[in-house]
Amino acid sequence: MIIGEGPGQNEDEQGIPFVGKAGQLLDKILTSVQLNPDRDVYICNVVKCRPPGNRVPTDEEMNSCKSYLLEQIRLVNPSIILLTGATAVRAITGDKRGITKIRGTWTEWEGRWVMPIFHPAYLLRNQSREPGSPKWLMWQDIQKVKQKLLDISSSV
Ligand code: URA
Q: Which of 45, 65, 89 to mutate to test the pocket of ligand 1 (most atoms within 8 A of CB)?
């Protein structure tokens, strides 16, 4: 399962998460480790409507959508949750450290493996692929995710 911040304009119009440019990049990242974005991953957002002017959702807005999100998690029952960006981290684990510090690290939350990763929109603004760049770090992280999925599926 992948949790983003909230719908952008395209997503709000279509009612489907991550269909714009950031979503297309997310699909590419998933495909790079042979994950099918339509079949292998459930993608959703912390808030279900686009905040005015595309601003970061307030705590009140996040709380209004929280029971919906928790029910999505319960129904999908994922073994792994990726939190894209600081808002998703804030909503789920409440970790206040910056995303640069915690990305790529596994924690356990409610019996599930959780990893914060960069938001794909951030990668769109940072095009470098040099070692240590956000895109390069995302490539390390998604490979860790793939490995964890393989570990989980071989242990059942
Ligand atoms: N950014 C998000 O966090 N979610 C979307 O669905 C699209 C862009």
A: 45
Could you state, in order of their start, the residue ranges of all structural domains in the chain?
Answer: 2-154
**pTM for the model:** 0.96
Q: Using the atom order of ligand 1, give the atom closest to the CA of residue 20.
A: 7
**Cβ proximity of 81 and 92 under 8 Å:** yes
Q: List, for residues 57-100, the tens digit of each pLDDT value.
A: 999 999 999 999 999 999 999 999 999 999 999 999 999 999 99
d(CA 36, CA 59): 32
Q: How far is the CA of 112 from the centre of ligand 1 (A)?
A: 22
Atom number in ligand 1 closest to CA 85? 3
In CATH terms, the fold of domain 2-154 is Uracil-DNA Glycosylase, subunit E (3.40.470)
Ligand 1, CB cutoff 6 Å, lining residues: 4-8, 11, 17-18, 20, 22-23, 45, 121
In Å, what is the CA distance from 45 to each residue of 6, 66, 70, 100, 137? 5, 10, 11, 20, 22
